[in-house]
Amino acid sequence: MSHPISRRAALILVDVQPDFMPGGALACHEGDAIIPGIRRLLAQQQFQHVVATQDWHPADHVSFARSHPGRQPFERIPLYGHAQTLWPAHCVQGTAGAALHPDIDWSLVDKIIRKGDDPLVDSYSGFRENHGPHGRRPGTGLAEWLRERGVGEVYLAGLARDVCVLWTAQDAVDLGYRTHVLWDLTRPVTPESDIPTRIRYDQLGVEVLDSSELGPAPWAAPANHALHQRL
Question: 51 by DSSP, 3-state: which?
Fold first, then answer.
């Protein structure tokens, strides 16, 4: 039985960037395997609103291990009262690894949200940056953009299902969106995380779907989508 898509739904593509794929600086397990499915989904134009998020870090970002002398990637340190994982340098502004994946037609996306561009604040969720030095989580502008268009339901795909997709789903639920994750169009940092990640989605009330379950577009898709970029 197909899953109907509401007119008030948006597709959010999280961090579909080469640095999160095999050969990249912070590769997810089989991260490139999601590309054909995302291309099909965009070509079918089943969603009236499509957003992409893009990690966009300065070279001296606080989350990079190299910004903390003596520390190694994947160590955890306290930062602003919260645990911070130190990452290999990745998605550095202007590099090929930070670009949106070249095998996807991004002209079919209505909005690109760049995140993680503050050198002092890490960012996983598409909706809000992580906690910063002032104890708050600054917004990215995504919630406001969706609200202006009357969106009440979101479908998530991208990387990684156990980090940035999960954080985006958590914030979506907190903000009152009916939230779905297209499991086959996500991949984890490590496959060992899949069971606890799936349990967490269930706890949040997030519906986990396969993209093949999505029904046909209930309206005539527009011929073209405008590409807008948050600078």
Answer: strand
In a domain, 34, yes or no: yes
CATH number for the domain harbouring residue 54: 3.40.50.850
Using CA atoms in the order 149, 215, 103, 106, what is the torsion angle rounded to 10 degrees? -10
Residue type for position 121: V
Question: Is 220 inside a domain boundary?
Answer: no
User: What is the per-residue DSSP string for 116-143?
Assistant: --STT----SSSB----TTSS--B-SHH
SS3 state of residue 222: coil
The torsion angle over the Cα atoms of residues 108, 28, 54 and 227, rounded to 10 degrees, is -10
Tell me, rounded to whole angstroms, the distance of Cα 217 from its chain centroid: 23
Which amino acid type is present at position 111? K
Place of tokens 């002092």: 120
Q: Which DSSP symbol is given to 101?
A: P
Domain count, the chain: 1
For residues 125, 126, 131, 137, the Cα torsion angle rounded to the nearest 10 degrees is -140
Quote the distance between the C-alpha of residue 164 and its chain's center.
Answer: 5
| pTM of the complete model | 0.91
Each residue's pLDDT tens digit, 13-69: 999 999 999 999 999 999 999 999 999 999 998 999 999 999 999 999 999 999 999
Q: Quick check: is 54 in a domain? A: yes
Cα gap 202→181, rounded to integer Å: 11
Name the token pair of 47.
């969603």
The whole domain housing 30 covers: 9-59+100-213
Domain assignment of residue 3, yes or no? no
Catalogue the active-site residues. 15, 115, 164
